[in-house]
Amino acid sequence: MIAKKVLLNELGKEQKKKGFVSKKKLKEIAKNVCLPESEVFSAATFYSFLSLEKRAKHIIQVCNCPSSHLHGSDRIMKYLEKKLKVKAGHATKNKLFFLSETSCVGLCDKAPAIIIDGKPYVKVNEKKIDKILRKLK
Amino acid sequence: MKEESLLFKSNLSGLKAALSKNPSSVIKIVKKSGLRGRGGAGFPTGLKWELCAKAKGEHLVLCNADEGEPGTFKDKLIITKAALNLIEGIIIACHAIKAKNALIYLRGEYSYLIPTLKKAIRKTEPFLKKKKISIGIILGQGAYICGDETAILNSIEGKRPEPRKKPPYPAIHGLYGKPTLINNVETLAMIPLIFLKKFDATKRLCSFSGDLKNAGVFEIREGKQIGKLVEKAEPIGIPKALCFGASGGIIPYDPCMPLTEKNIRDRGAWLGACSIIVINHAHSIVELCESIQKFFVHESCGYCAPCREGNERILEILKRISHSEGTMHDLKELEELCDFVSKASFCALGKSAPLHVITALRHFKEEFVRRCR
User: Fold this and answer.
1) Contact assessment for residue A109 and residue B215, using Cβ atoms and an 8 Å cutoff
2) d(Cα B367, Cα B23) in Å, to the nearest integer?
3) CA Rg, chain B, in Å?
4) pTM of the model
5) Contacts of A109 in chain B (CB under 8 A)
6) Tens digit of pLDDT for each residue in B311-370?
7) I need a surface site. Which of A81, B66, B130, B137 has the fewest CB within 10 A?
8) What residue of A is the nearest CA neighbor of B146?
9) Of the candidates B248, B217, B210, which has an alpha carbon nearest to the alpha carbon of residue B360?
């Protein structure tokens, strides 16, 4: 079965488990899938879901697709930046949140959408965000 | 329209009907059905199957479930509501091209659909065992370019997901150099319906979103007036334009226009994966273009310079115009740049990236001019 030896699945599993793929683990995976370390590094740094260092406890991604844009995703992003006191693409000082934009997440019919730790939240507004963030502290 | 009623559920009957036929007649029936790829390119499915079956080597089937086109969410609906149709389609494809291995490349954003897929695979266990077929799932990690039929191969092989030169086409020389049949989710989900005589080539699933109260997936018949479809989705405000995903272009909203690929092509745009984003008069086309362009800058894989650098420059100019800091010279340069990127880029992503600006400049130029000094 081909799927068992696929690099992407190995990297994805580690990312899900630890929240990042350490350099040590990268070497280990390279050995397991019989690929050179350089190639594994090259692939791992390409994908937006993978990171080589821990970004923060919670990852918040704001969908920026045209439908979310029409339903105010820019406003949502500005609100999150102000509330968390952090710019998109960065983590808060206490490493609790990492805020970023993400390409279409396939929830255009329920825009604007955000994803927190892989879980989708749809038709969000400022009030909903306050409620969600309170639970995450 | 209720989304549950969109797809006729085969419940293994389509699979049984197909497996009772020999591989070459299965291909003949698929060819005759008139089914064309629903991922965007619209290549005749039966012909692809035939080409792949004729190629020498160990055959593979790859289901492209990396539905990344902004505004498109029909494949998600199919997997959620009719995953069994999809798995039946995969098994029929394996039977037709004599493949023993099949893969589903699911986009990372849909990871919550893995249990649904696994459940559907389990339901077909007796058929898989009998035909000695195994179906594996690969989870993408967030890259739009992986939806390209050659970049997806590099992604699975553990390389950077950059597109490959064609030819050779994947149907002849695909994953690990083996003949690989790559089909989109909707295309494969239609296969069992062909064998139940429930398939209608003039109908397809369309993702409606944007300024609509009732956004969702609708089954549409080619040639129906766009106004009737949009009315069903209950527009918010007065519609001004239609945007066909990020890479399909933007055209003015004309309620009387029959929805056909030709009509859309005549207006410079492209229906692609059939996603329609409705934009009302409250929104600026310039700002929409800026938002779409940000997407392409982020998703360009960086392999070729026209796409990597050209898209960055296009965004710079769009930002200037959007902030009312652009000049008429910027506008001219924007037109030239878009033309260059669309012609000189290596793959379909780069070639179609500037289409939204090209079509916006063709139909909504006054919105750009108004913001220029």
Assistant:
1) yes
2) 55
3) 21
4) 0.95
5) 73, 207-209, 215-217
6) 999 999 999 999 999 999 999 999 999 999 999 999 999 999 999 999 999 999 999 999
7) B130
8) A47
9) B248
Helices vs strands, H then E, count in chain A: 6, 5
- Give the domain CATH number at A91: 3.40.30.10
Q: Tell me, what DSSP letter sits at residue A2? A: G
Domain enclosing residue A22, as ranges = 2-44
Q: Identify the three-state secondary structure at position B39.
A: coil
Residue type, B319: K
Taking CB atoms and an 8 Å cutoff, what residues of chain A touch B103?
2-3
pLDDT of residue A4: 61
Residues B87 and B127: beta-carbon distance below 8 Å: no
Q: Is the CB of residue B177 less than 8 Å away from at least one CB of chain A?
A: no
Partner-chain contact A67 B71, CB within 8 Å: yes
Q: Does the beta carbon of B350 lie under 8 angstroms from any beta carbon of chain A?
A: no
DSSP B112: G
- Does residue B220 share a domain with residue B249? yes
Measured between beta carbons, the chain B residues lying within 8 angstroms of A46 are 143, 160-161, 301
List residues of A whose CB lies inside 8 A of any B CB.
1-4, 6-9, 11-12, 15, 33, 35, 39-40, 42-43, 46-50, 64-67, 69-70, 74, 101-111, 115, 118
The strand pair at B239-243 and B275-280 is best described as: antiparallel
Residue B3 predicted with pLDDT over 80: no
Domain C-terminal end among B259, B280, B301:
B280
Strand, coil or helix: B20 = coil
Last residue of a domain, one of B280, B301, B318: B280
Q: How far is B369 from B215, CA to CA, in rounded Å?
A: 32
Contact B73, B67 (CB under 8 A): yes
Coil, strand or helix at B61: strand
Pairwise CB contact (< 8 Å): B103 & A46:
no
Quick one: which of B64, B259, B82 has its CA closest to B170? B64
Place of tokens 């092509």: B265
Q: B101 has which bridge partners?
A: B60, B134
Query: In this predicted complex, what is the ipTM?
Result: 0.93
Number of domains in chain B: 3
Q: What is the spatial distance between Cα B241 and Cα B210, in angstroms, rounded to a whole number?
A: 10
Residues A39 and A72 in one domain: no
DSSP code, position B36? B
| Closest Cα in chain A to B250 | A66
Do residues A125 and A71 touch, judged by C-beta distance below 8 A? no
CB contact under 8 A, A102 and B211: no
In which domain, by residue range, is B255 found? 203-280
